[in-house]
Design goal:
about 250 residues; six-stranded parallel beta sheet; 12 helices; binds 2'-O-acetyl adenosine-5-diphosphoribose
């Protein structure tokens, strides 16, 4: 990773009127949460066609809960890593307007960010598919699967399954942010799942600088991204924040 690119990112952020971040599973890998794709990814172990579609949740919820219970345990054990904490600091310093996250782990909120658009929902909350009663994930017993509500209905996490629509409000706000930002930080996403993967293109074609941070190149790299910073989000983001804090006088010119 080059220091030049860190300084370039800090300068772009310092000079922008509006900065937004789009984050994906790579952001939480350093918190001990497995990504979906690649080596050790969730989809290597569980085929999403079998385990993650809303039709399966309706007809055979016990099957979906094999995967969901594993995710729930991992999420409830996890804490924000230096990458999350850096984005929280960026918001506190007035540099970051919002985060659009595909992650369902709630770690951006836990790190201290206030303006988080949860594009795929939040696994820390569940609700009953019969009566709609809402329940915290830590109160959902995983002893027998699928877990049930007191009313007898089956519980589900408040996440977006394959085959379900993105919540209207999240989609509208994300598109507005993508269209109106001057800088979009795209962190730890493989760029494979729509419609989230279209947002960097919306930002770029509206004139924004798209800064991609990832441990490996994606289909955005060299096309949608204005430039690519190779490395772990938990290492790159703290360096950008340190540069913004220590060099602020030199970055605005
Ligand atoms: P993926 O698992 O597809 O991609 C994770 C990305 O993070 C990859 O590009 C990795 O190279 C990168 N990565 C891994 N560790 C990293 C680190 N420490 N720092 C930076 N980058 C790192 O995850 P998403 O792109 O978020 O949707 O997946 C998008 C959606 O696909 C998910 O929200 C989920 C899934 O199916 C639903 O379940 C609806």
């Amino acid at each position: 990773m080059s220091d030049e690119l860190i300084i370039r990112a800090a300068r772009d952020i310092a000079q922008a009127k509006k900065v937004v971040a789009l984050t994906g599973a790579g952001m939480s890998v350093e918190s001990g949460i497995a990504p979906f794709r690649g080596k050790g990814g969730i989809w290597e172990k569980y085929d999403p066609i079998e385990y993650a579609y809303i039709d399966t949740m309706r007809t055979n919820p016990g099957k979906c809960w094999i995967l969901l219970s594993e995710m729930q345990k991992e999420i409830l054990k996890a804490s924000p890593n230096p990458g999350h904490l850096s984005l929280a600091e960026l918001e506190k310093l007035g540099f970051l307007s919002s985060i659009i996250t595909q992650n369902v782990d709630g770690l951006h909120h836990e790190a201290g960010n206030n303006n988080v658009i949860e594009f795929h929902g939040n696994h820390r909350v569940g609700y009953c598919m019969e009566c709609g009663n809402r329940i915290k994930a830590e109160e959902i017993s995983l002893e027998t699967l699928p877990p049930h509500c007191d009313c007898g209905g089956v519980l589900r996490p408040d996440v977006v399954f394959f085959g379900e629509a993105i919540p209207h409000d999240a989609l509208t706000r994300s598109n507005e942010d993508a269209r109106s930002c001057n800088v979009m930080l795209v962190v730890g996403t493989s760029a494979e799942v729509q419609p989230a993967a279209s947002l960097p293109g919306v930002a770029r074609s509206s004139g924004a600088t798209v800064i991609e941070i990832n441990i490996e190149a994606t289909s955005f790299t060299g096309h949608t991204s204005t430039y690519f910073i190779k490395g772990k989000s938990g290492e790159i983001l703290p360096k950008i924040v340190d540069t913004l804090k220590n060099e602020s006088a030199n970055l605005t010119t």
